[in-house]
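> tool_call: predict_assembly(chains=two)
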Amino acid sequence: MRVIEKIAEMQSWSDRMRAEGKRIGLVPTMGYLHEGHLSLIDSAKKVSDIVVVSIFVNPTQFGPSEDYRSYPRDLEKDVELVEKRGGDIVFHPSAEEMYPEGYVTYVEVGGLTENLCGASRPGHFRGVTTVVGKLFNAVKPHIAVFGQKDAQQSIVIKRMTADLNFGVDIEVAPTIREPDGIAMSSRNTYLTQSQRSQATSLFRALGTAEQIISGGERDSDKVIGQMKEIINSQPDADIDYVSIVDAENLKPIGEIRGKVLIALAVKFGKARLIDNIIIDAG
Amino acid sequence: MRVIEKIAEMQSWSDRMRAEGKRIGLVPTMGYLHEGHLSLIDSAKKVSDIVVVSIFVNPTQFGPSEDYRSYPRDLEKDVELVEKRGGDIVFHPSAEEMYPEGYVTYVEVGGLTENLCGASRPGHFRGVTTVVGKLFNAVKPHIAVFGQKDAQQSIVIKRMTADLNFGVDIEVAPTIREPDGIAMSSRNTYLTQSQRSQATSLFRALGTAEQIISGGERDSDKVIGQMKEIINSQPDADIDYVSIVDAENLKPIGEIRGKVLIALAVKFGKARLIDNIIIDAG
């Protein structure tokens, strides 16, 4: 498994592959890979000749009081997992390689980044769009695969990619869950055993929302109310947001109609977990 | 001469050229081409196999009260001039092609964009870096050539290109002047005959600055004072700024040392003219 650490080396490798007519797929990750990430490699392999997995814990998408330093890392195991899953290259630049002294340029997507996670993590999406733009320029992929778990992220990245003409196809692959329904996340490792069992309430709340809506409920406040009740009955749950928004423009909606995104973020101790489902309410 | 109007068509043309091993040079312009632009084509031809000249009056770099609508345009003549000068492709997208409905993404360079033209044209450089990022993704050049007349612009673009890893070499070609010393600019067409002759004071002020500094003066306020005197003796001159800044970080300097950029912007009636020189004061 080749691990590339320098942007210039990554670019010339990609230029060579493109000149050979190879289709490059990119799976951008922050590492500490789990089945959710690995399923993205599967998705990428279906539509590319070569799959590059980037592993970079991106400092610019963490707030000052967030978990950049403590975010779990295990490059050796990650490289092994990528190899086993059939990835071709790991791109693993250092923070200094990506953000050298004097770095001052940012990519910003307006409108879509102000609510949901954008409201509680100011600057987060600016960091995400900036690093994804840089990764696109470094890896020069034809397609890139993101996970549905980060629903707002994938919508913001689709917008940025179209707006700036990156010419990269964005695919969004389904959320992969543990047997108990918890969405896979590197941050699940922060949970104590008790919090871990309490965190199953997120998936249950989403399931309940789906049921109520398919039963005919169209008032989003009522649905949100019931979801919050389920989550708040967990002693350690600290709700950041539970929202129902238009699945395209992410604007909050009062009446549930068409394609809606039901998204939530809840803290359990040190872990801030997110999850979501998209429902077509007709 | 092939004129390409669609981004997707431009991208697949560039992909083909790159696959053939051709080196693509880009000369980004707002059209109404003069010898200054055409000299950029010469520079590009020296280091590329194929030269693309983009012609796009970019709305996002004009302020609401600026001259976007009245900016001079003459596509037919421009295409003829590019052909005569040996350019290969004109890329001429519409404003709707570049900024379709729902467009919300911008590239911002911090720090370098706050003084000089950035101070009097808020949002200008955000528009410039955004459109140049889009042009880079559309044309996929190996090198791009900008004019020294827009000194701050070329420094900002160099920074953005490095920061976002565009992998494009940025060349800056010398300012081309009329016989009377006025820097060539599409906006010179706004000048009345009298203003036109008054505007030669900009070049004289820069020349005076160079003389005083080579004579030993190191106090930038004194140099600026003499420059302003020359310009203010013109009845229609309305100085926006006359500044001496570090040629790398664009920060104002009190004592003239090392490489300095002496830059100015002056309005004559409807025309806001800029000019500059770089001096190595040792």
